[in-house]
Amino acid sequence: MKVVLGNQLARLRDATDVTQDRAAEVLGCTQQKIAHIGGFSSWFVLVMVG
């Protein structure tokens, strides 16, 4: 679930040029939480590919 959320969040942010700070503000969490979610999905993809 977390990987899917991280991937979708990253895709939406890229498509709309929304920063991590803005996404966090809208979602009611910290920028660090957004980075953690996105970082986890990136790490997972690297592990799966590597």
Automatic annotation (TrEMBL):
InterPro entries: Lambda_DNA-bd_dom_sf
The protein, known as: Helix-turn-helix domain-containing protein
Organism whose genome encodes this protein: Amycolatopsis albidoflavus
